[in-house]
From TrEMBL:
Keywords: Secreted, Signal. It is found in: Secreted. GO terms for molecular function: odorant binding. This is Odorant-binding protein 10.
Amino acid sequence: MVGLGGLLLLVGLQIIASQEQGPPHGPPPQWANHKCAGPPPAIKNPQKCCEIQQMFTEEEMASCGINKFEEENRQGPPKPPDCNKQECLLKSKDCLNDDGSINHKAVAEHLNNWASEEWKPAVEAAVAVCLGENEVPGPPHICEANRLMFCIGGVIFSECPTWQDNDDCKQLKEHINECKAAKFPPPN
């Protein structure tokens, strides 16, 4: 059930956290020790905190060269998928323009068609954050398709209407909520 959504959410959380860190060499010294300047707390299975229906079928993922995500076989932190694979998925839903750029309207339509009623607020938030500006947010060294998928996954995960009620998930949700509101750099 988690599949690509789980992978994207895990990577998305890591990318979202790193967006506030500045260049890849780490956060500026004035906020290097701030808890929101790094990844969320180490939680064994963060994707279990919110079960999200896959946005793409396993067949669509396989046709784009993306293998089903299996947590138990992963070693180390998740890595972003190859940009061509993400673009392939977006093309399968007609979410890329002829020039290869993201078709914001088509992505919003796809998300709205994907979402059940309880997920509509999360999708609305993702559309506002990830498609609201001319440029998809995220580190410029990451391709636009990956930035889009990370952004959507991260926002939908953080706005999850079916968050699990256990200690790990409560800790993760607290971190997400605190860091969502954090302004960087934080006051000294």
